[in-house]
Write a structure and sequence with these properties.
Layout: E1 4-6, H1 7-14, H2 18-26, E2 32-33, E3 36-38, H3 39-45, H4 54-70, H5 81-121, H6 126-146, H7 150-163, E4 164-170, E5 175-179, H8 184-190, E6 208-213, E7 216-218, H9 228-232, E8 235-237, E9 241-243, E10 247-250, E11 263-276, E12 279-285, E13 299-303, E14 309-313, E15 323-329, H10 335-342, E16 349-356, E17 368-374, H11 378-391, E18 397-403, H12 412-421, E19 425-431, H13 438-448, E20 455-461, H14 463-475, E21 483-487
Length: 493
Amino acid sequence: MPRLITLSRAARLVGVKRGALQKKIRDGELRTFEGELLLSDLLHVYPQTQVEDSSMLERVGQIMEQAVNKVVRPADEAVDSDALAARILALGRELAIARREARRLAGVVNGLQRQFDTLSDGDHTAEQAFSTLRDWFEKALADASQSPDEDDVLAKEAFLRVMAAQVRILPSGHEFLIEGSDSILEAGLRGGLALNYGCSNGNCGLCKARVCSGQVKKIQPHDYVLSEAEKSLGYILTCSNTAVTDVVLEADEAFGSQDIPPQEIEIRVKKIEQPDDRVIMLHAKTPRTSRLRFLAGQYLNLDLGNGLRLDCAIASCPCDDMNLQFHVPTVAGNPFSEHLASTTRVNDTITIRGPAGDFTLNEDSPHSLAFIAVDAGFAPVKSLIEHAMALDIAEHIHLYWIATPGNSHYLGNLCRSWVDALDNFHYTALKTSGDTTVAELLPGITGDLDSVAAHDCYVCAPAPLLDGIQTYLHDAGLPRSQLRLEPVREEIS
């Protein structure tokens, strides 16, 4: 019987990005059946798949150790977590090897029976029959011990199931993995999904979802009361449950800015940095019970409480909804940035309202991604890039960061770390001067891309530059539907 495997698990098995598999599906190299792949097709396309992965076994041990440490036991029942993890790891290894060898030897036995039948029907001497059987048997044993087949990959997948349960969301078909004892909501947000939620603490019920298949487990109590009818239909709170097995859920997601409700939250300042003279980096934290729900690329209104307010892009990823980052441009004579730099202190509160804006990622697009940021326009671009990384949706990501005179690539080390960590990430730092304008840098950017029309392009720059950038990119062959523009927000509101 053909074996099917989900796209997410297939990517982990063969060690590639989901985007790489999606491209092979679009190119016709892999077939899908309701979002799943044939294991045999996968092995045909990736014959080099390594089935002996000791790091995976080590990860199993780590997760088991973490799980054990979270269990509260009486002192007289305490178990050494290292020993327990080692035992589970050893037993799991033995079981996988034994099951694999059993299936291989079963194949040899079946083949041997067929050889007996063939030889008994033929005209062979005893010496010829013995020689034929010996040669066949030696070859069968050698093939069984050397050939990587589906059983090897299935054994590897068994370890994946121990260390990570997979969750599939309906109707979108989005998938993510849960490791350890994370809640479904936490894992989904970390995986880049815009799942519906409010307090994330079991009080509001906005993260309610219906379990269609699989087994979940409550990991923390919640005050929100599910009705008996809801319980009978399989409803749970994703903030209070984790997945025990692979799970399919019906859950609400945000697919655009219109799906994100307006919010007003008091955040607390954690750190203020000024990496250069033209930008202030503000780090803040939301209350645990009032996390900010937003889409990557959106902006908020920041209210310092003294009549000073500024619309400012969110520079952090929605996957970390409690920790927010803003890059506030310092404009001469701007009282907001002056007050932030001179007066605002750690633990001060700032009121945020929003989010707003449609400078958001087109998650369903098959194109590679190109980002052009000018100066502090890097802020929403950073959020979009981190979101794209979390979703693992792009075959290639290109970032072109242009610094105008007096400005710098103030997070250049971060961009270079992305290059080091990701095979598909490309970063180019550019500067203008008295002799070079932003417009004069654009031909180099489009020339660097294999095909402009094969990319979705996201541009954040000071408002006076946007019209010129837009015109150039359209003339260079970029369809209007593949371009999104956002001004650097630096005017107080």
